[in-house]
Amino acid sequence: MDTWGIDGEAYIAAVRAGAIDPHGYSAAELQAQLDDCEREWSERLALVPDEQLDDLIAGRIELPTLPEEPEHPNAARLRADEQFVRRMQALEAQSARIEGERRALMAEHVQRVVELPGDAGPAVKELATMAAVELRLTQGGVMGRMTDAWNIVTELPAAHEAAESGRITIAHLRIIEQQTRALRLDARVDDEEKGRVIDELVELAERVSTSRLRAGAKQLIDEVLTEPLQQRHDAARAKRRVEVFDAGDGMADLVLHGPALEIHAAHDRLTQAARKKAKDDPRTYDQFRADALLELMLAGLIPDDHHGVSPITAHVAITIPATELLHGDHQEPALHDLRFPAVLDGKVLVDRDTARRIAGDTATWERLFTDPTTGVPVTADTYRPLEAQRRWLRARDGRCRGPGCAKPVYRTDLDHTTDFAKGGTTSIGNLGHLCRADHGLKHDTRWRLEQLPGGVLRWTSPIGQVIDDRVEPAGPVFKDVAPRALDSGASREPIPF
Ligand SMILES: [Zn+2]
């Protein structure tokens, strides 16, 4: 503990700026150690009586040690919890830095051989093979990593730097890389706009969990892509297919690639059937769903024509901006050009044609209409109209309200924030949706939950971390040109059905 010189603060500043501590400690950990050390010194100094201070300074007596008090088991547990979290954080940042260094190295050398005269492909391959034989890895694998690294460093420099400095994890970087592929390929979006979106994603990645980053990225990117979701969806829909993969042990996988809405509906229908299985049926939901689907496939009738989604009786929530339904050929051009995807279960963007078909359909779809200027739900429409409170809360929450959780609201249950048994009321300000795992987090662990005004759920961990879970707008939010188009009055019309 006496190793701290007067340069402790300067050393920590250097680590914060990117220097690697030989013991692998992060700046926050070093700061905590320094604070502990200083606190201990001042406590030990306070034990020295005034008349002995001269002896101490002259080195004739030692600084007394603090009396050892046995640590209470709860305090010891909290200290160990805290240490674990800080260590995880430090190691994650450290591995992000090392990964960043490797990425920068690979990108630099790909760039070096790309700039050589001649064909770049064989040159990169030659270099990758040299590294691969040394590492006993496959040439294709190393080459893939090198080109990925080069792509990230050249096309996502802000994300690369954030990961390299440990501000975002490698998992966050990977999501940014995946989700921006279409954007980076879109030649009609200029570089400045691409840079702005990437900056926004990095900023988001510094604040939210990976699942929320993925959902946020989808919306953010859809707004700037020049090819509307409808066109992309139509092209992607043309590639729908069913494939079989052998899986060994006498098993195989049947993979259906199709429109998200129908696939979710189909899965939900299987789940609903599983919920109704007999009490003595020992099958798990997974097993029941698999059996039911096979039964349908093998014994059901294949229709002569495509019926669309109308025969589906599954229960899927879809968020539709109110203006979405106003689109029609007679609409003014300004409104017609706007692209507002509907959102399935708060996650998957749904193209306009499907959204309108669903909106016009009968009662089994939960249709949630959002205010186009704020994205906040304005009204819900469901087959259980008497449950006004439930509908409002579902609209407000849209997903599980657990820390970092993004499970859709249909995988959750309503929870009294303050338990009913402890005097909590059944009111909007005391209810929130939690998935089973987060319900357990609240009831079976030392995490605490309270609800603040505005539907903010405040989670407090045993070691004092505070996570304020705020609800995102449920629908896309108007920007730029949109408010003017709306002021024309078109959106003030009642929803047309
Ligand atoms: Zn959850």
From TrEMBL:
Stretches assigned to the HNH nuclease domain: 388-440
Please identify the protein, giving its name as recorded: HNH nuclease domain-containing protein
Q: Which InterPro entries match?
A: DUF222 (IPR003870), HNH (IPR002711), HNH_nuc (IPR003615)
Report the CDD domains cross-referenced here: HNHc
**Which SMART domains does the protein's record reference?**
HNHc
Query: What family is this protein classified in?
Result: Belongs to the Rv1128c/1148c/1588c/1702c/1945/3466 family.
Q: Give the transmembrane region(s).
A: none
One GO term in the molecular function aspect is:
zinc ion binding
Entry superkingdom: Bacteria
